[in-house]
Amino acid sequence: MPVLGKNSTFKLDNAAGSLQNLSSFITDISGINNTTAMIDTTTLGDSSIEFTPGLRNGDTITITGNYDATPNTHFTALLGQSTTSTFEYSPAGDTAGLPKVSGECWITSYQPSSAVADVVKFTATLQISGAVTWGTN
Description:
By secondary structure, the chain is mainly β. It has one helix at 69-78; strands at residues 9-13, 19-21, 26-30, 36-40, 51-56, 60-66, 85-90, 99-113, 121-136. It has a single domain (5-38, 51-136), classed as Hcp1-like (Pnp Oxidase, Chain A). The chain is 7% helix and 50% strand. It has a 7-stranded antiparallel β-sheet with strand order 2-1-7-8-9-6-3. The protein has a two-stranded antiparallel sheet with strand order 4-5. The longest helix is centred in the middle third of the chain and has 10 residues, at 69-78.
């Protein structure tokens, strides 16, 4: 059965370190990947390129949403913090037993934008730092 994006949830620490549900402001999340860097280990004399797995994750999360004072205050307070923020992303919703991705991240940018004939939007960029846990709620 298809999973609808409208059920997704995204939570992020506030400046005090408490997870806050920002789902009602977010319209799109991308970049939470399950990746491993592949390191080229080809040496002289090899007839083919060879690789070995390296570090995992470290991806960039992009969040787009409808502007509101709540996410504006949330993201601007986290910019330049000296500690990472915890995030939790549940693509199918946060009901017990459903998949969840969690980890630590830095807020690297936050930009509100407005077009005359559209609602005011925002985009936030988060840099994952450290291990990402792929589990369940």
